[in-house]
Structure formats: structure tokens, C-alpha cells
Amino acid sequence: TSHESRINVLSASVDQSHNLTSPKVNDCPNHIRNNETSPPVPKVPVPQEDPHKKPRISQRERKFNLVVFGVNECPRGTPRKERLVMDEKCITSHIQSIMPSFKALSIRDCYRLGRYSDTSSRPRPILATLDRACTVQQILSNRSSLSPSSGVRVKPDLSPEDRHIESLLLAERRVLINSGLERAKIRIHGTKLFVEKRLHGKVVDGMFIKSNTLGDYAPILLNPPIKHASPNPSSTPLASPTQN
């Protein structure tokens, strides 16, 4: 009996020491209780991209593009493939009127800019990508030959910054035309606007700055400042000698 009591005391002390030294299962992290080697990596939500948003176009890619305005759209519900074929045919037909050698195969891609709206009275412009940049330049050089009755206009694919510059130059040209100046005497080149081959102004830091002309200096030229000459002692007449 004494031996059994001693064994029971030793077993109780061993169990007590084991409980003090070993961590509780419930206190262990989840990945240890689940026999995992490392904690789970938290899931980070991935932002969803707008499928209708077009990627930003670099300046190098823009030189292959044309923006065509005034081409009628197909009715709502027309399959996408048919719409693309019709747009390509219309673009080819209008470009061939000013460049007969143009072929439909020169168009690598084309799509409408913006969302379709039943309430809009104007068709959406078409962004057309051609296979050669020199073809784009040739079309832009001859675009003034497009028939005004067609309502079709062709413009280069400008960046947002260049579109802002163009809007400022066109607004100034409109002011000059409304003042009675002939449109043929006005030329736009880059960021500058010329009137009868003289620089009228240019866009600097997002603002149109007029250039000084001879008219600005006219008051100075007509009424030059009067300079008062100081008396010159050498020019003072000598007094005649007195006679005795």
C-alpha cells in the first residue's frame, strides 16, 4: 500500500509539471493546431479594370492613328462584326476621294470613341490605326480636299495636352475671324498662330500669349520721348570785346 501511494504521488506531480510546461492546445495559433508550417497569407482584393476603358496611347503609337468625324453609325443592335466592316468601308471610301491609291488593307484597326447614345444627334468619331505613319501624314496633308457636303472631317490623334493647345489656338482664330479678318490669312503651326506670316501669339503653359507687334509700339514711334539737351558751354556765343 505504501508503494502504491508513493506511485500515485509521483504520477500526480508528473501530470502537474506537464500541465505547467506544455502550452494548451486552445492557446496555439490556428496554423499550428492544423499542422500547417506557416500562417495563411491574407487575401488582398485585386482591383477590377473597366473593360470599356481603352489603354493610354503613347506618342509613338499616335502617329499611326487618324480620328475620323461625321461617319454615320449603324443602328442599335447591329452585330459588332458588321459595324466594323461598315466603318472600314466608309473610311476607305472617304479617304480614296482625296487619295485614290489608298487601300482598305491599310487599316489595321478601327473603333468608335465613347459610348453609344440614342439621344445624340452626332455620330461618334472613329479612331483608325493605319499600317504606315507616312500614309497618315499624306492623308492629313490632303484633308482640306474632302467634300464639305459629306460632313466628314479627318484630324490627327492628339494627346490631351495637345488637344488643349489646339482648342486655345482655334478659339483665338475664331476671335480674329469674327473681328473681320479673312480666314485664309490665319495659319496655325504647332503651338503658334500666324497672321499674314507674322507671329500673332503662341500657347505657353496652357495659356495663349499674344506677341507684340508694330501696332503695340505705334504710340512710341509716332510720339517719341523728347530729350532735353543740356547746354554746351562751347556753343555759347562769345561776348564782343568792349571798345575803349
How does this model look, in words?
It is a single chain. The protein is elongated, with a radius of gyration of 42 Å. With 244 residues, it is α+β, with helices and mostly antiparallel strands. β5 (186-189) and β6 form a beta hairpin. It has helices at residues 2-21, 30-33, 59-62, 80-96, 133-141, 160-178, 214-222, and strands spanning 65-69, 107-112, 126-130, 153-156, 186-189, 192-195, 198-204, 207-210. The chain has a four-stranded antiparallel sheet with strand order 2-3-1-4, covered by helices on one side. It is built from seven helices and eight strands.
Shape: elongated
Order of helices and strands: HHHEHEEHEHEEEEH
- Please state roughly what percent of the residues sit in beta strands, choosing from under 5%, 5-15%, 15-25%, 25-35%, 35-45% or over 45%: 15-25%
Give the total of beta strands.
Answer: 8
Q: What characterizes the major β-sheet? A: 4 strands, antiparallel
How many separate helices?
A: 7
Query: Structural class of the helices, strands and pairings?
Result: alpha+beta
Strand arrangement within the widest β-sheet reads: 2-3-1-4
Q: Please give the alpha-carbon distance between the first and last residues.
A: 174 Å
The Cα radius of gyration reads 42 Å
